[in-house]
Specification:
Layout (H helix, E strand, L loop, with lengths): L3 E2 L2 H21 L5 E7 L3 H17 L2 E7 L5 H13 L5 E4 L9 H7 L11 H9 L7 H12 L8 E5 L6 H10 L3 E5 L6 H5 L4 E4 L17 E4 L3 E3 L2 H8 L4 H9 L2 E3 L13 E2 L6 H20 L10 E2 L2 E2 L5
Parallel strand pairs: 1-11, 2-3, 2-4, 5-6, 5-7, 7-8, 8-11
Antiparallel strand pairs: 9-10, 12-13
The protein binds NADPH dihydro-nicotinamide-adenine-dinucleotide phosphate.
Length: 324
């Protein structure tokens, strides 16, 4: 079987082009959507993520602010910052970069972000709306994946969808979005019995686990569409050779850069078995940031009572504009 590689970068560019069009319309009304990113502590990966989010914002013509706080910041201090951002008119979206330092309770902080500015879709009010299929803000990674599936014309209605991983950020919202689009959904986790057999039922298999190359050929049905959310660092050439083969340019990358990324699905196993697969890197990753831009525009429009852009297609109230 010929396996299609789903190019997340290209689809992310399409999302950004649509966002840019919407921004131009808003600019004509003297509106500039604003995104504030709050970064607590010195996590280098978090710094990179926040950097690329603010860079994309600026490139598209959105207002962006980064609030950097030291790792010893107290919960009260962080709540004060969020309160200020909740009240700032120029800010439409607030994202608190996770993970937070251990002494800060994530739940308290995420619930303090005003639901109208909750562009990550983590506030309990938005979680409830997603669950019951009402209009609200939903997490960016699963929304980006839904967009990719639609754009690539992958049939969701009636499909057997298996999601591996039940986090609040990816797995659970992913399962709900697929369910709202009429897939038959199975949500798996670390206690699932015979995971391989469950995965082999999937027409659409979403892996969001955080375990490098956990899902091997044995987990894949012929013709499955594989969406690999995992982003795991491989740091030794020995591990790299095992996963990518001796001649792979990935081995050079490990030697030069110190690491390469691998998903939760074995990088070579879907080829020839799956109908389509998202690569790592270059699959789901770029979609997340692009969707964050869209969520910020959506939040800006909803907060001001304007028509939310994108009307051809809806995912349980979450409008995603898809061509055709
Ligand atoms: P979490 O650690 O929050 O959740 C992992 C989930 O995987 C849990 O539900 C856990 O089960 C399950 N799990 C762990 N081990 C196994 C196993 N052996 N078999 C079956 N299930 C297992 O991770 P996230 O959801 O935050 O992230 C998952 C991956 O996606 C990570 O690699 C992360 O880097 C990546 N990611 C990528 C993004 C992107 O933009 N591309 C965005 C967000 C995340 P249990 O609940 O039972 O513990």
């Amino acid at each position: 079987m010929q396996t299609r590689i789903l190019d997340g970068k290209r689809v992310a560019e399409e999302i950004k082009a649509e966002v840019s069009e919407e921004l131009q319309k808003l600019h004509r009304q003297n509106l500039v959507p604003g995104l504030a990113a709050v970064l607590v502590g010195e996590n280098p990966a978090s710094r990179v993520y926040v950097g690329s989010k603010t860079h994309t914002c600026k490139k598209l013509g959105m207002h962006s602010e980064t609030i950097e706080l030291p790792s010893e910041t107290t919960t009260d201090k962080l709540l004060e910052v969020i309160d200020r951002l909740n009240r700032a008119d120029e800010i439409d979206g607030i994202l608190v970069q996770l993970p937070l330092p251990d002494h800060i309770k994530e739940e308290i902080i995420l619930s303090a972000v005003h639901p109208d500015k909750d562009v990550d879709g983590f506030h309990p009010e938005n979680v409830g709306k997603l669950c019951s299929g009402k209009v609200g803000l939903a997490p960016c990674t699963p929304l980006g994946i839904m967009y990719l599936l639609k754009k690539e014309e992958i049939t969701i209605k009636g499909a057997e969808a298996v999601v591996v991983g039940r986090s609040n950020i990816v797995g659970k919202p992913m399962a709900l979005l697929l369910l709202h689009q009429h897939a038959t959904v199975t949500l798996c986790h670390s206690r699932t019995r015979d995971l391989a057999a469950v995965c082999r039922r999937a027409d659409i298999l979403v892996a969001a686990v955080g375990r490098p190359a956990l899902l091997t050929r044995d987990y894949l049905k012929q013709g499955v569409v594989v969406i690999d959310v995992g982003q795991n660092r491989i740091e030794t050439p020995e591990e790299g050779i095992h996963l990518f083969g001796e001649d792979s340019e990935r081995i050079t990358k490990i030697k030069e850069k110190g690491y390469t990324l691998v998903g939760d699905v074995h990088p070579r196993d879907p080829i020839g078995v799956a109908a389509a697969v998202t690569p790592v890197p270059g699959g789901v990753g770029p979609l997340t940031i692009a969707q964050l831009m869209r969520n910020t525009v959506t939040a800006c429009c909803m907060r001001r009572g304007l028509k939310v852009p994108g009307s051809r297609f809806q995912v349980s109230g979450y409008r995603l504009k898809v061509g055709g």
